[in-house]
Design goal:
Layout lengths: L3 H7 L7 H17 L4 H4 L3 E6 L5 E7 L2 E7 L1 E2 L12 E4 L11 E4 L5 E6 L2 E7 L17 E9 L6 E7 L2
Parallel strand pairs: 4-5, 6-10
Antiparallel strand pairs: 1-5, 1-9, 2-3, 3-6, 7-8, 9-10
Amino acid sequence: MSSIFSQGIMNIHRPAGANLLWRVGIAASAMAACLVLPADALAQSFPLTCKAGSTMRLSVGLLSGLNTASVFFRPSSVPAAAGLSPGFCAWSDRGWRDGEPTTLFIRDAGRVVGNFQNGAYSRLEFTRGDIRGLEGITRNSGQIFIFQVHREGTGGNGVMVVDRVGP
């Protein structure tokens, strides 16, 4: 006794020559279903504007053999176009919402150079092209940084993953 599903497939009337086309379509669908893209490739990035300031913190680390960087910032309640105070970040079109992460995470920060003394880095320098100068984000220089980010994680455990730096 066969299932209703298999009976339905067997009873489909297809014109001559359609069997090959039908089989190719099924095979292509099966291959497409097996195609797995990394989460980053599927995530849409949004511009986040930050103004350098001494209230920001910058941390470097190592994850899976790659140098990483995290930037901790204060969220702005108004859009970036309304003006940012030093140490704040904002979306271009709106203020920050409750529950949105206030940490930027850069997975591959490239080569990081600096002096490590007394548990802290001094004279930190990033050599990866698009984040060169990131070390200046903790200074009250008023420098503006635009990060293209997507969110990973939920609640207090989430981060804004930096896909690239620049408009």
